Amino acid sequence: MLRKIMNYMIGFIMLFLVCGIIAQYYISQPTEPEELICHKGRLLARVGDDGTVYTKVKEFTCDYQKGMLIIEEEK
Question: How does pLDDT run across 42-75, given as a tens digit for each residue?
């Protein structure tokens, strides 16, 4: 009886550890920064390929509506 309980406990612990390792793997994956972002109505473009440095794009404004980036030209 004790052996059966230990087998279930060890199986549960192993399953828990495997799920934790898989979750940690997917959480720690690096995310690629977006090329264009909208911040406070201003359109920002990424500078270079190596980081998260952005510059303001003149003459354009932006807005998010229903998950889409709307870019408009200022007049």
Answer: 888 888 777 778 888 888 888 888 878 888 887 7
CA diameter of the chain: 80
Percent of the chain whose predicted confidence (pLDDT) is above 70: 96
Q: Which residues are registered as beta bridge partners of 56?
A: 44
Report how far residue 45's alpha carbon sits from residue 34's, in angstroms, rounded to the nearest whole number: 8
Tally the domains of the chain. Answer: 2
CB-based contact 58:47 (threshold 8 Å): no
| Inter-residue contact 61 to 72 (CB < 8 Å) | yes
Cα–Cα dist 41/68, whole Å: 14
Q: Domain range spanning residue 10?
A: 1-30
